[in-house]
Amino acid sequence: MRYTKMHGAGNSFLLTENLRGQLQGEDLSALALRLCDPKSGPGADGLIVLVPAAEADFGMLFYNSDGSPGEMCGNGARCLARYGVEHGLVKNARDIRILAPAGLVTGQRVSGELYRVRLNDPSAVDLHREAEGEDCAYLELGDPGIPHAVVEVGAEAFADPDALRERGRALRHSPAFPRGANVTFACLTGENRIRALTFERGVEDFTLACGTGCGAAASALILRGRIPGDTVEIDMPGGHLSVRLTRAGDTVRDIHLTGPTAVVETGEFTV
User: Fold this and answer.
1) Global pTM?
2) Catalytic residue among 36, 73, 79, 187
């Protein structure tokens, strides 16, 4: 079986096709665990399996590096959009349709390696939920939703990544979030700009970027009145991402995530 390793702002994925049932009967969680571990495979933050979808260009099954399934992945969807365009799997590069467990994700090629996807609208928004002594904003993107906790911090918090990691780990497992949560720490650095870092559920550590974490952070800070307008520029360790959304009363919709994609390598694996 062939794979393509890609990353979106440093968030890395292994993409493989199952459009003709090549992986029928395989334990995809176990496969993700093996391939995403650099000791036994190419190594990545997650595995994306392309599957047929009648109402879309293709479907997306996503597995974290620990083998756990995910509802959707923003940067993964952007990489998948590029893969679909470059492998002739989409009818229109300006209207790419990807069906994920969290719902339909649409995307487009902006230019070169730059791709945009529309993240799933929130199915739950709680702007002030206390967890582990922290004031968190909690959002679920999609239905079933990807759970996200957003914590605003000062710039000094990033100076001690080990302490921030422990805060992220505690929040990720907090009883305040019944299904666990991806935890994004965000710091305002300008009127419409933030620095962010996400402790990802399923990776169980910080990643270089988190697309849905960017969408959740932008949504939370706009709804809290911390950021004016509808666009947020986000700096993550792996690169720069941009979020544009529409405010709709006490929630948001049409969350568009734009950023770079890159092809790292192609190779083969055995099943």
Assistant:
1) 0.95
2) 73
